[in-house]
Amino acid sequence: MTATREHFGSRLGFILAAAGSAVGIGNLVGFPVNAVKNGGAAFLFIYALFVVGICLPVMLAELAAGRASQRNPLGAFRHFAGHSLFATVGGWLSLITPYMIAVFYSVITLWVLGYLVAIVSGDLQQLSDPAYFGQFINSPQVFLFMALIALIVGVILHFGVKQGIERAAKVMMPMLFVMLVGMVIFVLTLDNAMAGVKYYLIPDFSKINAQVINGAMGQAFFSLSLGMGILITYGSYMERNNSIPGSAKMVALTDTAVAFTAGLLVIPAIFSFDPGTNAEELSTSSVALVFTFLPKIFLAMQSSVGYFGASVAAAVFFLLVLFAALTSLVSIIEVSLAGAMDQNSISRNKALAWVGGSMVVVSIACAVSFGMVPFFTGFTHYAGIDKSFFDVVVDVFYDTILPLNGLMVCLLVIYRWRKENFNRELEVGETKYKGTLLERYTDLALGTFIPVILLLVFINTVLAKFFAIHII
Ligand code: TRP
After folding, report:
1. Is 119 part of a structural domain of the chain?
2. CATH number, domain containing residue 280
3. 407 CB under 6 A from ligand 1?
4. What is the domain extent for residue 278?
5. Which of 4, 171, 205, 266 is most buried as measured by Cβ atoms within 10 A of its Cβ?
6. Ligand 1 contacts CB of residue 225 (under 6 A)
7. Does 472 map to a domain?
8. 335 lines ligand 1 (CB under 6 A)
9. Other beta carbons less than 10 A from residue 261's beta carbon
């Protein structure tokens, strides 16, 4: 298998593909809103500390484990830890998690596409009606858009790592950066935009408490695609002469820069719409913000740029979100493909048929859990709240399990593969890594306090989400 494994064509290609994976709806909407609610630049500061102090070492661990083993996540766990229970649990979790994330993320992505199409057809006015979202997600149109998303992602993945994933990232990511910067410049010219910038950038450390710190940690971890098996898989497609530490730093920096820049777009736009905005009242849910709140904001721009201008701005924004979501979706489905290809020695197209086909079926179960099918809508009930099938998938695989998966990777790398071998792998392609502060810090942190922190975050989330027990 190893001899024929596909690889990225260049270091830049890898960085764009990995950054494409990391940059998603969370960066564009979730981060700005979290920041503005939780002390502005103070939140950014804490977030950056977590990116450097916790996420970067875990990124190194995932990428190195992938490149050294040349395997998908399950294969990597087996490679280093054999057929132990630990390898079986860790490996399977690293395959099931991305599969389930792909399932619900494809539903959100199809909504974005549906909104983009509606805006382009001149329907921005309708979108800003609070009832529209509920009607849209329960309309038969969702199946059409799901088929379109499956087609786009399927075509990209069919072409493989270099001709598909890397090429798509090289087209979509630069366009995403240009659109993002263009939108920021446009929004900053609107009235009252500066009030939003101030609100966003002036640090308020009094807002920082244990809960905010926990939130910043979770946001940083999931934003960087950690615990999803993605970086193990992408690591396995990296050339040996590429620097893992150098590339990981670039990916972390790009992801954080996009999140920060998106704040300069979203927050001033909100303030321009309603100068008296009270940030506390903004919903914490990215989904609610993207689909119910932002269309209103864009529509309000018609007073300065007309209905057509407002529609163009909204269309550019939704295209931006669509690109961000597509590159994330591609990366996460590739994990399942790599798993199917490696473990069963089957071709890419065969894997695509099996994985893609089954994913569409489970995605449909998610898509109909907003009223269309009562069984999936009222799927279960915990912590005092009714939960749909979609909610359960998000709660378990997006909001809860990632730190646990990350913890397993730390343990695998430090205690099974061992530090010396890990460091030797990182020195391949980066001869100057030996003896650096990053090396010493990573060695210490990955085997000690990072797993402890990840475990605490995991336990805290399980108690809060599933048992309504709030420790912090
Ligand atoms: N940063 C992404 C987001 O904001 C989260 C994410 C990272 C993700 N990797 C992903 C989502 C892969 C879906 C698939 O949405």
Report:
1. yes
2. 1.10.4160
3. no
4. 11-467
5. 266
6. yes
7. no
8. no
9. 18
Higher pLDDT, 47 or 280: 47
Q: Please indicate, yes or no, if residue 397 is contained in any of the structural domains.
A: yes
Count of domains forming the chain: 1
Distance from C-alpha of 152 to C-alpha of 105, rounded to nearest angstrom: 14
Q: Read off the tokens for 90.
A: 């860790």
Beta-carbon contacts of 156 under 8 Å, excluding residues fewer than 6 positions away, are 164, 165, 168, 326, 330
What is the pLDDT, as a whole number, of residue 2? 43
- The token duo for 40 is 């502005």
Mean of the per-residue pLDDT values for the chain? Answer: 95
Q: Which atom of ligand 1 is nearest to the CA of 31?
A: 4
The answer to whether the CB of 236 is under 6 A from ligand 1 is no
Do the beta carbons of residue 395 and residue 447 sit within 8 Å?
Answer: no
pTM over 0.85: yes
* Residue 334 clears pLDDT 90, i.e. is over it: yes
| Best probe residue, ligand 1, of 222, 322, 394 (max atoms within 8 Å of C-beta) | 222
Q: 328: Cβ below 6 Å to ligand 1?
A: yes
The three-class DSSP label of residue 384 is: coil
115 phi, psi to nearest 5 deg:
-65, -40
Percent of the chain having pLDDT more than 90? 90
331, with CB counted inside 10 A (0-12, 13-18, 19+), is buried
For a mutational test of ligand 1's pocket, the pick from 228, 289, 334, 336, i.e. the residue with the most ligand atoms closer than 8 A to its C-beta, is 228
Residue 57 has pLDDT above 50, yes or no: yes
Q: 395 C-alpha to center of ligand 1: Å?
A: 14
In short, whether 27's Cβ falls inside 6 Å of ligand 1 is: yes
Residue 21 Cβ < 6 Å to ligand 1:
yes
80 pLDDT more than 60: yes
Residues with Cβ within 8 Å of 395's Cβ and at least 6 positions away in sequence, in order, are: 387, 465, 466
Give phi and psi for 97, each to the nearest 5: -55, -55
402-450 pLDDT, tens per residue?
Answer: 999 999 999 999 999 999 999 999 999 999 999 999 999 999 999 999 9
Q: Is residue 3 part of a domain?
A: no
Cα 296 to averaged position of ligand 1 atoms, centre (Å): 25
Report the alpha-carbon distance of residue 229 to residue 401 in Å, rounded: 12
What's the 183 CA to ligand 1 centre distance in angstroms?
22
- Among 34, 51, 328, 329, say which to mutate for ligand 1: greatest number of ligand atoms within 8 Å of CB: 328
Test site for ligand 1: of 33, 100, 109, 223, most ligand atoms within 8 A of the Cβ: 223
- Tell me if 104 CB under 6 Å of ligand 1: no
* Cα 114 from Cα 134, distance rounded (Å): 13
Counting residues of the chain whose pLDDT is more than 70, the rounded percentage is: 99
